[in-house]
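For reproducibility, we list the full input for the protoporphyrin IX containing FE complex.
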Amino acid sequence: MIQSILRFLSSVKLAITLIIIIVVVSVLGTLIPQERSVGEYYGRYGGLAPLLMRLQLTNLYHSAWYIALLALLTLNTVTCTLTRLSPKLRKTFRPRLEAEAKTLLAVKDSDSLKMNSNLEVTAAAVRQALAGRRYKARQRAEGGGIIIFGRKKVLGWFGSDIVHLGLLVILAGAIISSLTGFRTFLKLEKGKAQAVPRAGFVVRLDRFDTDYYPDRHNVKDWKSRLTVIEAGRDVRSEVIEVNRPLAHRGFVLYQSSYVQEIKSSLIVLEVLSSASPERAQTVSLRPGQSVALDKTGLTLSLLRFEPDFVRDNGGLISSRSEELNNPAAQVTLSRAGENLVSGWVFARFPEFSMTHGSKASDTKVIFRDIQPGISPDFSIIEAAQDKGVPLIWVGCGLLMTGLCIAFYWPTREVRFLLEGKKDKTVVTAAALGSKNREALSSEFAGLWKELKDQT
Amino acid sequence: MSETTLFKVALALYACALAIYLIYQFIYQFRTKEKLGLAGWSAALLGLLAHTAALIHRTVASGHAPFTNMYESLSFLAWACLAAYLVIDRVFKIPRAGFLFLIVVLALMLLANSPLMPKEITPLVPALQSYWLWLHVSITLLGEAFFAVAFITSLMCLAAASREKKGGQPSGLSAEKLDAISYRCVAVGFPLFTLGGLVLGMVWAYKAWGTYWSWDPKEVWSLITWFIFALYLHTRLVMGWKGKRSAVIVIIGFLLALFTYFGVNYLLAGLHSYA
Ligand code: HEM
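The corresponding predicted structure, in tokenized form, follows.
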């Protein structure tokens, strides 16, 4: 009973079946959008929706049955590797030195030859030829002859086992990650400190900078200077950025994103008068601020700023998003309480404005820029604890090492049967190896020639 | 020379190589054939040099690795495929595959050059500014390039096998030899793909997002591709499959790799949709 279960679990047929099943359902999982709302599934699949959800095809990769398939494949790999391991170890450390001329000659790279030296001398010549090519030789006398096995790169037999072990370690890491992994987002305000949940330490955001590309709109990087505080004391201070997290006591802190309160943007406006161009003036101000323009005696107020201006059918103005897609500023330009110009101006369309003036004034307000370099107010930091990660990297290391060994460190074996015929010896030999046969063939040919030259 | 000029020079040289390899198919005299094979290889190599210069030019101009949009990564894939072919041809002498192979490379180049692919250098979003990304993409594409060579030799293997079955004269390489070459290509491509596509992909994702695996469609499709090539290795090593059946698995595997590369971007959405 246990025997047949083991045989089933270690069979390569099971592996192939499992791989095919996993491939097919994984494809399904990428075709059906994952983890959406129930309503969306009804909209998309109608009456089929309940079935898909019951089968967990809508959250496939976290479903018990999908994970069970992956676990079964790993179990399959492990049992298969283990059942083959002990014969392999025996073959490596205690090989049975047995050879028959007939079976040797059935091998592709094999040959037979009569040497003019006696058994012992021939054996010494064979061992020397093997040693010259870095083969380790084992020898046993049998009947009236001698059997010699020469081998090198024996590690090559274990490449696949190392690969399979790597897969097991990766799966173990993944299980630990999914069972114990913990992640949370912190919204940190400049100058303030916050406890990292479950971590037993506190972080403070000292600085938060945004770097822009020269076009001044595309963000190049976000940098947060964080100080870790333990028991009321600053223990370390580091700048983190996207792709460069900070690791502390098993927690990793990532720069995730930022929150910029619109009210704090600094808007650059230019006031132009077509009658007197020399009195043009550029000012920067935040929403809600006013500034007196000394050259003209006018007052410019910035009432409101919208980063992505839209106006709905009812004339209601808002932002479509927090992105700077269509930045717009509501301004008024007044002198002694009387509005000369008021309305909206747009950064992307300097020639266009939605303003009206009382005295058909020749004065214009132009939206020049949103000042880069002012830092957003909140930095969003992701704090993650994942104890499975070290195992993942160890598993990946084993996987890659195993692959290199399996493909590029092929074991080679040359078996000799020496039969003494009076003071002459008949030598029969075969070269075995499953990888890179061309190189093996030429090595065997060289070895054979060396022996032949001695007759 | 500007990047565009270099790119066009490369394209022209590849077209020359294609023409030479086409003539090669119709010549039967051994000496001429040998010379043509060498000429095709040399033209392709010159093209590759111009192409290399174009890629370096772009890297210097943009300040980042040349595979952050579809134009750049297609161009790099064409480059990697041709480089892989030139190496494999040196080792195994398969000028017969040159014709089919240059069709693939030219198709990739023309696709990259088509107006469908925006060519402006765009600023990189912060998550893409990582040397792990350079390694991840370049090594994956290099692995896929070797799968591409295996794909072509597997197609030729299928053709040769059916010719041999009909008792036809084996012209050129035997199915057995082509099968062995396919295997050697997979033996290079599989470790590269594992390293680039899976391992370095996980490292990069971990550095950028804090999770090494998030089941995004591109990740799932890479895993599927990887499983199929694992299937190829196991059916071969453990069950002794060879020839036609092995060739079919390689062909399926390469088509899956192509879908992972193109299809996922255009048909399925996910984290990788910008790459
Ligand atoms: C997806 C998971 C797997 C991967 C990536 C993998 C990878 C490999 C690799 C790279 C080799 C060496 C191939 C060669 O030298 O040409 C190998 C060999 C082998 N694998 Fe797997 N394997 C996987 C799953 C399995 C499973 C589930 C089984 C079990 C039934 C299995 C059984 C074997 C056997 C029996 C060998 C030959 C061992 C030898 O004689 O050296 N593998 N595997």
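Chain A has a mean pLDDT of 85. The two ends of chain A are 59 Å apart (CA to CA). Both points were considered when choosing residues for closer inspection.
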